Amino acid sequence: MISLLVFALLLVGSHGFRFSMSSMRVIPPLRMSELLNPPSESRPDGTPSKTKNGMGPQKIKPTARYVAISVLADADAAGSFATRELEESPHYQSLDARDRAFARLLVATVERRFGQIDKVLECCIQKPNKGKHAHFIRATLRTGVAQLFFLRTRPFAAIKETVEVLRMYPNNPPIPEPMIKFVNGVLRNLSRPSNNETDDTAEMLGEKLLREKTSPQDNFSTWLLNQMRNDWGEKTAELICSEMMPPDDTSITPRIDLSTKFSLAAATGMNDYMEEIQLLMESLGGESILLPQFSIRGGSSLKGDVKLWPGYEEGAWWVQDSSSTLPALVLSSALHDKYHQCRLSELHVVDMCSAPGGKASQLLSVGFGHVTAIESNPRRSRRLTENLKRLDLLDKCQIVVEEGQNWVPPRPVHGILVDVPCSATGTGARRPDVLRRNPDLKELIEIQQLLANHCADTVLGEGGILVYATCSILKEESEDQVQKLIDRGNVETLPILPHEVPGFEDAIDNHGWLRVIPGVLGGNLRSTDGFFVARLIRK
User: Fold this and answer.
1) 241 in catalytic set
2) 358 is known to lie in a ligand binding site
3) Angle at Cα 324 formed by Cα 276 and Cα 89, nearest 5°?
4) How would you label 205-217 residue by residue, b for 16+ Cβ within 10 Å and e otherwise?
5) In what order do the strands lie in the sheet with 317-319?
6) 322 marked among binding-site residues
7) Cβ neighbours of residue 459 under 8 Å, at least 6 residues apart?
8) Any binding-site annotation on 206?
9) Average model confidence (pLDDT) for the chain?
10) Cβ–Cβ < 8 Å for 15, 7
11) Which partner from 48, 59, 149, 528 sits 20 to 30 angstroms from 446, CA to CA?
12) Separation of alpha carbons 411 and 129, rounded Å
């Protein structure tokens, strides 16, 4: 009897693919065009055809692999963020905690290693034409490669369970068996020894291709690599790449930083909340770390959905990267020094582009009496409202759903935080999809200038403080924009001082601005988002 593998390879060969059976190495590139454009398997009236056993499509309980592949396929088709799609998937929510964690790991690994995975596949598959099942097939192949060569899943489980997902395809027509055999053949071929060795320690063909034909920089767009080299030089660009794209995915621990209602006051020296922070850390687990600016980094014992972590329902904390806390920190510090703590309740501060609400929550928690959160996107404003409600801060905040450049306060405000829309390239370690995208930087820069100019000219009062911030590692969106704002003549730099940003002192540049580059700072802050913060005062 011909084995399933040999049958699959013969079948694939009949569609224009050839393998060398002696070493199981691919000879010419494979062609998928016929398989990705098969004849329709639905009836003329559009109803699905029956399966080979005479039964129609059956309802199947989703697995972690099915959820991950479905989300990756949908994101590929829509050009959206797979991690965001995952959180909104009802199938994902139906999984138990362990399977949700595995689905997240699969999606994150494919997103992070997207470029390298596709290079491995391109070594043995010609670029396929588009077809009805193309996105699902690509997502399945990518997920298989991610398991085999980045997560070190045993080949039998990685291939068998991944290929089985193709038979769970929910739409009509179902994926034809020849296409399923094709995916099985590709993954099995990649998992074979690269030479004639047969022991378990032999290097697989896919591992050899990964080592010889790819590099971590393949996961970055050429545009972004060139921008980083131009801005920071070759050495620092390599450091950023290595921090955002570590060599071994099995050692990656998700970095989740938490802000509390006590963090900002403790960091600015307004109040000593160490006892409260210590109690909260104990409830989160002994492995949690207190960062220099009083954020808490969750320990390895904290796993699964953050909504199930201690203190979430009670509104004791919110997720916020340590770098992202800096804009509110330097704004609060300057206003505290200028007006003194007893008058904070009389000050009006604005958080522009506010959702999801981390910075507004910081400003509210430190005691500002009038906080206005501006958010133009209705969907994001709903998330902002939900987050502030959970934290019991909603009643203290005025939320305005409006384009920031159109909003005019009844009277000038004392301080404004402008975290402008940007390329988000500093968040690549957590959102690897941004590293391979080519954003419309020209449009973003125009929006940034429009917002910053409006805030400086119309929103801010004389002597007021403006903090300009981005989560971008690009100077064009950050340092260059602030210099343009200063050159207009109505604001000047109010330098950020070392004692105001504990742990980030070395990130202050010679302008008195704050530039956080991933991988540059020491200790636990080596692993943090790239960020830029400049503090200005209205003349």
Assistant:
1) no
2) yes
3) 95
4) bbbbbbeeebebb
5) 289-290, 296-297, 257-260, 317-319
6) no
7) 350, 407, 408, 409, 412, 413, 416
8) no
9) 86
10) no
11) 528
12) 59
Is 342 annotated to bind a ligand? Reply is no
User: What is the identity of the amino acid at 181?
Assistant: K
Please give the DSSP secondary-structure letter assigned to residue 317: E
Distance, in Å, from the CA atom of 177 to the CA atom of 198, rounded to the nearest integer, reads 30
* Pair 538, 466: CB distance under 8 Å: yes
- Classify burial at 244, counting beta carbons within 10 Å of its beta carbon; exposed 0-12, middle 13-18, buried 19 or more: buried
124 annotated ligand binder = no
User: 74: which 2 tokens?
Assistant: 């949908």
Residues 456, 491 contacting (CB under 8 angstroms) = yes
Residue 454 phi, psi (nearest 5): -60, -45
Question: Tell me: the pLDDT tens digits for 72-117?
Answer: 999 999 888 898 889 888 999 899 988 998 999 999 999 999 999 9
User: The dihedral of CA 7, 8, 11, 16: what is its sign?
Assistant: negative
In 3D space, the residue among 18, 38, 20, 46 whose CA is nearest the CA of residue 30 turns out to be 18
> What is the per-residue DSSP string for 463-493?
EEEEEEEES---GGGTHHHHHHHHHTSSEEE
Tell me how far apart the terminal alpha carbons of the chain are, to the nearest angstrom: 86
Reported pTM: 0.84
Which one from 123, 124, 397, 471 is the annotated catalytic residue?
471
What single-letter amino acid sits at 47? T
Sign of the alpha-carbon dihedral angle for 151, 240, 527, 360: negative
Task: From 196, 223, 190, 53, select the one nearest 122 (Cα to Cα).
Answer: 190
In this structure, which amino acid lies at residue 340?
H
Alpha carbons 196 and 42: distance in angstroms, whole number:
44
| Tokens representing residue 211 in the block | 């080592």
Provide the pLDDT for residue 539: 93
Residue 177 DSSP label: H
Which two structure tokens, joined as six digits, stand for 324?
Answer: 């992202």
